[in-house]
Design brief:
The protein is 72% helix and 3% strand. The protein has helices at 4-45, 68-74, 77-108, 116-124, 131-142, 148-155, 168-193, 197-205, 210-221, 223-238, 242-247, 260-269, 274-303; strands at 47-51, 60-64. α2 (68-74) crosses α13 (274-303), α3 (77-108) crosses α7 and α3 (77-108) packs antiparallel against α10 (223-238). The longest helix has 42 residues, at 4-45.
């Protein structure tokens, strides 16, 4: 009896260690690529670098700056304006994209849908195109002289300017919607496939129309997927970078601080003020977290 106890203790110890051994590669990678950069950015946002001499040849020192970098970031009118611009962007673009993704998912999962696998792949395909390439492709449809849409509109007397100061934001919204609607659609499709067939059979017995099935059965049961895709879209809106940066080459209305990420990028690599750029990055993350939290609290309250 006594000889089996040490063996049992060793077995229990090995059993307790096994999950951590299996998780160790992921935890190491997660720490190096996610936790450590965040901690570094937060630490840098509270640091100020002072260079002695005209070009810093007499030495560089760093010290604790308190909230000075944050005050400078908040005092930058262009940075605050970029956040406001993205909030307007999200208020319009996110609902449009989620509604479009939901309609596509419902159509593909309807009983009368033909070749749903083919169309799912076709709608998802734009997500596989990198944002830089997608923006270049769409720029050929936006730039006058290259765009067949602008040329055809000119023939009928319409003056379309996709890259003007009042329209370029919505031209970017079109690119983002084209790129991510299929991705969100697949998340919603996955939730639709989890709905039990018994509910559809009961609805058919009761004589429900396809619209009634979608409105009264499917949409209420895919609310978790809709919430998830909306939160992802809110976070992605404040992270918008590649599309406006590439489109700025042909759109004078897009300046170097058009979006919050562009503003932080410019502060870091054009003005060489990495500490203020870190503060801007932290503020972007805080705003994204706050908006996601408010959205989740509001939707949970509505559900309750």
């Amino acid at each position: 009896m006594s000889s089996t106890q040490p063996h049992a203790r060793k077995l229990n110890a090995a059993t307790r260690r096994a999950p951590w051994i299996l998780l160790a590669p992921f935890l190491a990678l997660f720490t190096l690529t996610f936790v450590l950069p965040i901690l570094t950015a937060v630490g840098s946002s509270f640091t100020r670098v002072t260079r002695a001499g005209l070009f810093g040849e007499e030495g560089v020192t760093s010290g604790f700056a308190g909230f000075a970098n944050y005050a400078q970031a908040i005092g930058d009118g262009n940075f605050i304006a970029s956040i406001g611009r993205m909030l307007l962007f999200g208020i319009i673009q996110v609902p449009v994209m989620i509604v479009l993704a939901t309609i596509l998912a419902l159509l593909l999962e309807s009983a009368s849908a033909k070749w749903p696998g083919l169309f799912r792949a076709a709608y998802f395909m734009p997500y596989g195109v990198p944002g830089v390439i997608a923006t270049i492709l769409w720029s050929f449809l936006y730039v006058p002289g290259l765009s067949p849409i602008v040329d055809v509109a000119g023939w009928v007397g319409l003056d379309l300017d996709f890259l003007g100061a009042d329209t370029v934001l919505w031209s970017i919204a079109n690119i983002v919607t084209w790129s991510y609607a299929g991705y969100n659609m697949l998340i919603i499709v996955a939730q639709l496939k989890a709905i039990p067939n018994e509910l559809y059979e009961a609805a058919r017995v009761d004589g429900a129309t396809p619209f009634q099935v979608a409105w009264r059965i499917q949409i209420p049961l895919i609310v978790p997927a809709l919430m998830l895709t909306t939160v992802f879209s809110i976070i992605g809106t404040l992270q918008l970078f590649a599309e406006p940066q590439v489109l700025s080459k042909v759109a004078p209305a897009i300046d170097s601080q058009f979006t919050p990420n562009l503003s932080a990028f410019t502060t870091a690599f054009a003005y060489n003020d990495y500490n203020v750029a870190a503060a801007q990055a932290v503020l972007i993350a805080v705003v994204a977290f706050a908006l996601s939290f408010v959205f989740l609290r509001f939707t949970n309250r509505e559900d309750s």
